[in-house]
Amino acid sequence: MPNYTFENKRTKKQHDKWLSMSELDTYLEKNKNLRQVITSINIVGGVGGITHKTDGGWKDNLSRIAEAHPKSALAARYGKKTIKQSKTEQVIAKHRKRKKW
User: Fold this and answer.
1) Secondary structure letter of residue 72 according to DSSP
2) Other CB atoms closer than 10 Å to residue 59's CB: what's the count?
């Protein structure tokens, strides 16, 4: 059921009420002194915090996917690498910066 905002035409005071669409029509018919106010909708953009962190099982799953696709961006972030692979990537990145191809 949606939340509707109503305004008293005489006093200009607003209040909210939870009604179904059929109840809305009945409510407005019974209360002629009220008018419905159109407001913007509330959208949750994201959820953050301590309780919404990814667990170890999800990270393990990402690392398995990264191993299956070693050239992907996921592999760059979650893939398991040896020290040699890490050092090689650092040298390549250093030379790419220097050459700017």
Assistant:
1) S
2) 11
Residue 60: burial class (beta carbons within 10 Å; 0-12, 13-18, 19+)? exposed
How far apart CA 32 and CA 40 sit, in angstroms, is 24
Instruction: Give residue for tokens 């008018």.
Output: 35
Strand order in the sheet with 3-8: 14-18, 3-8, 34-37
Q: Is the pLDDT of residue 101 over 60?
A: no
In degrees, to the nearest 5, what angle opens at C-alpha 86 toward C-alphas 85 and 90?
Answer: 115
H or E segment to which residue 35 belongs: strand 34-37
pLDDT of the residue at 76: 82
> Model's pTM, two decimal places?
0.42
